[in-house]
Design goal:
Strand order of the largest sheet: 3-4-13-5-6-11-12
Structural class: alpha+beta
Largest sheet: 7 strands, antiparallel
Helix content: 10-25%
Mean pLDDT: 77
Number of strands: 13
Distance between the termini: 130 Å
Length: 237
């Protein structure tokens, strides 16, 4: 008996589970009227993905640690080498006025001794603390005499070792008298340029060198009208 094939093709080729049908790629209209193949990543998305990857790489652990270390090193460098302050009173006028911002360097006195004429910032010594100043209070004055010198003020003139000093930086001649004072070892004698409005060594005595924090080098801003904060640089009581 003859056998007839009802379907002229193999069953296994017809069954849909035998092979996944591959559909031809479909295109769609992109920006600018250009045809973009389906499944393709637009160039803008590729660039955005690359930027995101770059940012993630930059924000890696090593990069973050390097940034933190660099910040700490820079902060330590500034803390060791320079100090910024602002002037809150007129005791150094006319050299420095109220509202001036200054920079003091803190390196040179590791190698050299303070010199006459230097303008220095310092912490209040014990005699100033007895007058009501805080031990952490920072002031600014000019060195007018060094260890071993004899200092006096007479007829408005500063006299050091018997020699009248020429001072063209003062606001006016001193209106007070000061008997001869010997500057001991390890100390300097400091005074404000505004002699009649300065609480300085003529009031509380020589300043120990160990209290000096740095030397004034730069005035970088003047604010003539400002409400001075309590944390500012105080020069006198």
């Amino acid at each position: 008996m003859a056998t007839y094939k009802i379907f002229p093709f193999q069953w296994t080729r017809w069954l849909p589970c035998h092979e996944l049908m591959r559909s031809p790629p479909m295109n769609f209209m992109g920006r600018g009227g250009r045809m973009v193949e389906q499944g393709a990543v637009p160039a803008e998305q590729q660039k955005k993905k690359m930027r995101t990857t770059t940012i993630l790489e930059w924000l890696s652990w090593d990069a973050c640690m390097a940034t933190v270390v660099a910040f700490l090193v820079w902060t330590a460098f500034r803390w060791i080498t320079v100090e910024s302050r602002f002037i809150s009173s007129s005791s150094m006028y006319p050299t420095l006025a109220v509202g001036d911002h200054i920079i003091a360097e803190k390196i040179s006195y590791y190698f050299w001794r303070p010199e006459v004429g230097d303008i220095v910032i310092f912490r209040a010594p014990k005699p100033m603390q007895d007058l009501g100043f805080s031990a952490e209070e920072v002031l600014i004055k000019r060195i007018v005499a060094k260890a071993g010198d004899l200092v006096e003020v007479c007829y408005g003139k500063l006299i050091v070792n018997g020699i009248v000093q020429t001072e063209d930086f003062t606001a006016q001649p001193a209106s007070y008298y000061m008997t001869v004072t010997h500057v001991p070892d390890g100390c300097v004698f400091v005074m404000g340029d505004n002699r009649n409005n300065s609480c300085d060594s003529h009031v509380w005595g020589p300043l120990p060198v160990e209290n000096i924090l740095g030397r004034y080098v730069l005035r970088y801003l003047r604010l003539s009208q400002i409400d001075i904060a309590a944390c500012g640089l105080r020069q006198e009581g």
